[in-house]
Specification:
With 276 residues, this protein is an alpha/beta fold. The chain has eight helices and ten strands. The strands form two sheets. Strands 5-4-3-2-1-8-9-10 form an eight-stranded parallel sheet. It has a two-stranded parallel ribbon with strand order 6-7. The longest helix is centred in the first third of the chain and has 30 residues. The termini are far apart.
Length: 276
Amino acid sequence: MNTKDKILKIFEGNPLYENFRLGYWRMRTRKSQKELEENAKKRANGFDDRQFSRLKEFENKYNGERCFIIATGPSLTIDDLEKLKDEYTFGVNSIIKLFDETDFRPDFYGIQDKFVYGAMQDVIKSTKFKTAFCADIIAKEYEVPSDFIPFPYNGEYHLYNGKPGEYNAKFSDNAYNIVYDGYSITYSLIEIAVYMGFKEIYLLGCDCSYPKGSKSHVVESGFVDKNAMSNPIRMRVGYQCAKEYADSHGIKIYNATRGGELETFERVDLDEVLAK
């Protein structure tokens, strides 16, 4: 551990330090946050933003259909993927590292974490996707494939929405206008799936658990998240927000994960769902 990390470790958890750090980041991001919201309002009011225009092709395209959003928790199996070949599916992050083991390919792939993208960019560039969505912030730092469809990602609003030091989330049903971060790519894909018209959304491999010393993903991306231990707390805040939106708009979100710790959504058995 270098000197900088040692100093940060000493102050970590100190209320005064945490308030100072929060205030500093609020100051740093205030301008960009205002710009993100203003641009979202412009698009909502009819502004044709060409960088996101390809998203419009998907608005309500799958109205009334069901889909499966497949996260990369350790509970996910190749066998489960094979069962979903005839369903509409979304895959995330390191799922592409499983492609050598299965013929399964998700209809839609999503990635938003620039650090995960950086760790996987060689694999990503050598993979052929049916449709791939990526947060616009990735394209600002990396050269992404030309067929990737960027979405207007807002991961900074947490600092301004709610009380300092508390996790919070907002939900967008129009991915062309804005996609709010909900502490995971799975959350963002729920927003995009709603925009696409899906009315039944099943989560799979969404363990929502990062036990210390245990495997966190079915296959790792190569990026080590230092804040992984607190991720489940943040994620559940996001998922609760998604549930509240879904419940009030006639959309069903189910958890088909085999195990894990996510209890926000009604649990269902994947095999029974597919047998219907």
